[in-house]
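question for whoever is on the cluster today: can someone run the full assembly for these? two chains, 610 residues total. i dont have access anymore since they changed the login thing
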Amino acid sequence: MARFVLSRALKAVLTVWIAITSTFFLLRLLPGDPTSLMVEGDMTPEMQAALLKTYGLDRPLWEQYVSYLRELLQGNLGISFRQIQPVADIIVDRLPWTLLLAGSAFVITIAVGIPIGVSAAVHRGRWLDRTLQALGIGGHALFVPSVAMLLLVFLGARLGWFPIGGAIDPDTRGAAAYLSLAHHLVLPVLSLVLVQLGPYALTLRTNMIEVLGEDYIRAAQARGLSARRRVWKHGLRNAILPALTLMGLQLGTLVGGAVLTETVFAYPGVGRLIFEAVGQQDYPVLQGAFIMLAVTVVAANALTDMLYAVLNPRIRL
Amino acid sequence: MSAPVLTEQTVPPVAPAAVRRSWYSYLRQPSAALSVLVLLVMVVMAVFAPLIADEPVGAGADVLQSPSGAHWFGTDDLGQDIFAQVVWGTRTSLVIGLAASVIAIVLGTAIGLASAYFRPIDAVATVITDVMLALPTLPLMIMLAAVVNPSVWTLTMIIGFFAWPEVARLIRSQGLVVSAMPYIDGARVLGATGWRIVTREILPAVVSLVIVSVLLTASRAVISEAGLSFLGLGDPDAWSWGRILLNAQRSGVIAIAWWQTLFPSLAILLLVLSATVAGMRFNDTRDPRRNGG
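^ ran it for u. tokens below:
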């Protein structure tokens, strides 16, 4: 067990290292003078040289890389061009909001997707199953900002049921603050869930149909267990683990969706930060945001895999 | 969610008559025929955009008009016609979608086939594929697109370069099945080189999967392009559906001008849905277990 956890963690670290290294070199190989990205307007050659020296950009590439890695390990993601503030501080301020948004969408997709997927598998060919097949394919065609903006226009602005932006009403205190938080979260989470749910439940249905054909389900039937017990206790137990891993694999897509949703709803997470940084060409913030999101996704993915190993009695590690 | 799950099996080479028959049975399915029709209409719209609507430029007199006979999809806060924007946006979406898909397919097929047949390549290729699939692609593409000058060309390169791992994984898994077949051993015994076996024996066996991948990868590329344009990283000289949505978002009149959101959204939905359905139905048709052939 310990060996599995260790090797999975090592794989996660390796993934992040490869991502950081390749983006470091890719960004420096791309055409474009880094100083022109930092300062608008004309600069004298002396000013340019001074700026390059300040950021250490005049040293050989490998030296830059080594010091970049060393700084990263100490939690230094560089200084924002626009806000003259450490990038790490800016992102750490914003990250909880993205985790709340993506985490809620993750949990709700699983919680709603499992009963739908299982029912569709049990009642194959019935209306729920057919609807799910259509939605499962349709879900791939949904564009997150489209869904988010239409929800914002109709449920937010026109009907006025939900706030159209932000994460919380700053004037609220105590229980009212939590209510306001939840109220602001509804539309952004709904946008993500609507896009993820169909394909997720459809894949779950396919897994479940496979599980229901297994010998131990027939054995349970022979033992006279009720259909309900066979499906929900024996079948689901074996279908739920792959369902969890499956969702873990979708974390990257979920984070991408969160970036777009936050942009639509002016939700103060890392996604909205990325959108603002694009407008200001604040390129250390973009790089830092990518690294932080990559670390989050890879770590969450590794944790899902470890959870799988702990929960699955068939894997004796 | 990523690409729809495809059933994987090996298809032996078929005679021309059988190819015609399978095209016929493919198009006889209403969903397949409808999807192909929608795709054709989109292609016509993209090619003949200048004949269908004038390129939207400058400000017009009719500001924020709701959809009417004069402006089918209404107008935006600058008085530009949304229908014209959507028609011209079709060009960008189709060009980037197809071109990025071709890049991804070429890279993915080459890497997938190489790792299916050559063991040492497989170890390296699998690590790279796994790393790329594990990372959040959109923030990665944003970071690169922000640094280079955004144009149709650079967006195509960036999207194509990050779309190949899914293709590589799919082609590799089917390639592994084919490589284990007796006729590959036969070719090796006859003295065929590795290159010849991969290009002449394995590639033809996976080619229908490659065709399906083109459609599914293109539909993901269209979504990626729309996402980058929506974040302000699109080509500033080309209309794009994502850019129309960005304008709607920025205009501050999104609650009134719902048409500025709805019509480009429908365009994305229609294009991606038809490409996906066309690809999946094609995949079903070539499956001998489904069509009784």
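summary bc i know u wont read the tokens: The first helix of chain B runs from residue 16 to 28. The mean pLDDT of chain B is 84.
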